[in-house]
Design a protein that fits this description.
With 327 residues, the chain is mostly helical. Helices cover 60% and strands 5% of the residues. The strands form 2 sheets. The protein has a two-stranded antiparallel ribbon. A two-stranded antiparallel sheet has the order 3-4. The chain starts with 8 loop residues before the first helix and ends in a 9-residue tail after the last strand.
Length: 327
Amino acid sequence: MRPPFEVTPRSARLLAEIERLLGRHEGAQMAPASPMLRRSMRVRTIQASLQIEGNTLSEEQVTALLEGRRVLAPARDLLEVKNAIACYEKLPKWRPGSAKHLLAAHKVMMAGLVPRAGAWRSKGVGIAKGNVIAHVAPPAARVPGLMQDLLDWVDADDETPALIRAAVCHYEMEFIHPFEDGNGRMGRLWHSLILQQHHPLFAQAPVESAIRDRQADYYAVLDRCDKAGKSTAFIEFALELTLHVLQQAGTSQRTRMSSEERMTEARRHFGKRIFSRKDYLQHFTGLSSASASRDLREAASKDVLTRTGDKALTRYRFGLTIAGASK
């Protein structure tokens, strides 16, 4: 059964821009992230998702635990991080549409933290804001069926883009509240799982950290969706965050490329068109002006580029000799 939501024009625009960035990443044939970068992203993801739930450990402390070093912190906070490390390590093995895998993930994530880790909740639950009950989740008896319907839809609906399915699944898990505790971190985990199975770049683009940076907005949009009875607003919010983290990931990757790799990518992008240093910088966002100038100067000295003009009027072109060009 399809959950209630609409794809607005704004969501469609955001989705198109995200897919454009993913295609640009593939076209650039950028090298896979190094083990060090993957570990850094894992740390950011875990620390951000748990910080939303009140965990006090810093990225440095999470890194230390990941490396097996001793960290002084509250016992519960340490256990939350250790569990999350184990859970995210298993992420590639799980299937988004499997209730069995979701329960297994919850068991790893919440081991030693709740009595019923790895099981659906058995009691009714209300979400309080101060002295007011802001959300009453569906009765516990309905949870298994509601979750099975949701995960079946995630698995079978090929017409709905994966990025929208990820956002809808995240919201619906928050709404159904299938577990006694850990619902927020599990919703974010499954959101990431769907994204990473859609495209490997999402392993380097932790949506969890973007949610942490806009935590107040995150809770506000969840509340708006509860009142509206559909996840439309959360889809827009999630796509906005996804685009943001993808832009950051793309910038980081481009600046890690060697000058030769950037020049190969520039040739693919510019073809035979004349371009300026400003054009080069706009393509390699995040690259410093000094690095761009060095790239272009070295390529021109090796005849990879021809150059014409001077100072602000300098222009470059691949593969052709421009009359009167200076090097």
